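Dear support,

I submitted the protein below through the web form. The confirmation email said the job was done, but the results page showed an empty box. After a refresh the structure appeared. I'm attaching both so you can tell me whether what I see now is the final result or a partial one.
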Amino acid sequence: MNLFPSRVYKVELPDGYTIAFNHLKQNTKHTDLLVLESTDRAFIGMVNENSFKVISSAKYGAFCVLSGDFQEKVGSIKIRIHITYKILSSILVLLPILSIVLTLSQREVENPIGLILPALLGIVFVRFVIIELNFRIISKKVLKKLIEIIRISHIINVA
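What the results page shows now:
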């Protein structure tokens, strides 16, 4: 099990990827950095000839990065967590461990084994509630928006 979830989809387009990518270019604010900013477009990022790397322009949209690669009518889309949120989540995971180390270094704890359960619960909470739940909700919203824009006809969850 990975600390940071990701999903890979195999997709099929009713038309060629050129038409789909034209729709995506019209709905994407072009930038080399995947940074959330105010725009009237649905996505922010880069759209090349047969690949893209975008984030949603919604207020929650920078959490997930969508990248895709297409050959004619078939392609793959990968959804992963943005590197900024990976760093912030890693810090949240390390905080319970750091608190145990600092508490043990003061040597004022009578029963150090009693600290393990709260630390594990903190790590599990960050991983499964904060990271996983946000990823599932946000990735579904962003993927739905992408499906509407590039008109995906068939989608299969690979991983």
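Response: this is the final, complete result; the empty box was a page-load delay. The radius of gyration is 20 Å.
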